[in-house]
């Protein structure tokens, strides 16, 4: 019997490590002892393990992930007994094997979708049922995943698109039209008990030619709209009833939405329907807005979308897409048939998969600046990362038009976060007056766009430039 340690670095993430959960099942099937932990642990590090698996997530977690790998290097007999896989390991495979101290570990690219990858046997790890027991909090493993009461499944794999900002073509290069979800759910239920929701990790489910079969399975599993009650007994012995929902978490492709598949989706208890809104050109805007209106027409009223920014878009494009969603919300509220439909937007900052900034979050797009990025972060502090359906709140947070939005982007950080306080005190008006009074703004805009004000040397600026820049310097440094 081998001693196996499963490690996920201690970054904050919503979903449990599905790959490690399947590896746990694999080793328990072989009769091995399996321990899971999130992050570093001195007691586990002090033990000797026959094999250690470490999962990776986004590439910008490079530093934390590499530190975690090196932390456990002496907990095995040989570096070859450490296996590292997942998104970052696949995307930055060459960089990992070139990292000092990691050249001898086993780095796995892509999926565990063939026999013999982890041992001399015919077991295909990727098809195994995830072991949910390892993510249950205990005395040493206290992290609780926000999503821990859902059947996490795939009905397809891969994507028919090849978007340059996406890692899926490298992670799942072959598109698979159909994978039975009933078998997955039945196996999870048998091994780990009943779950409430049904969470899909499909990357492009609407591309499947078997989409109607997928919907039929969802309905057969008890997720028909209006018939989606989930009843359980709580710790106090009381019978509790809640609604259970279907979530295609990776979103659906607006370009593939049509009357037929929206009619099918409307039959299941989907909440929310996620639709990506990645582009602001007129053609894509029409595709997106038509798709949203069609979904609402079919009675799907809980909608959500990811709004990618800092890629090839301009700040104005970002504002335009957010405003379109807010205006759609207002449109739906005016019509009795669509009233109650709501769209929530989730801004998603682009980070490159390759290149010098793939290992951190410092990439700045062609039309963006460090100040613009920081301004968006400051606004999202107030909105808690979500742009909701309330128009007045949006206009206040992001501006009534693109000119006001551009003003917010260059506004001092404190004036964005503490908007009302600084407006009442007159600080915001003083700042704007100082800015607009400058005939030549090129010199100050250079320093503003860099967003580095702590060590600024004011003596090299004119009187009017100083009157403006003083607003950007932290109060403790003035």
TrEMBL record:
It comes from the Bacteria. The keyword Methyltransferase does not apply. Its cofactor is [4Fe-4S] cluster. Keywords: Iron, Iron-sulfur, Metal-binding, S-adenosyl-L-methionine. Residues 154-308 form the Radical SAM core domain. The keyword Metal-binding applies. GO terms for molecular function: catalytic activity; iron-sulfur cluster binding; metal ion binding. This is Radical SAM core domain-containing protein. It comes from [Clostridium] ultunense Esp.
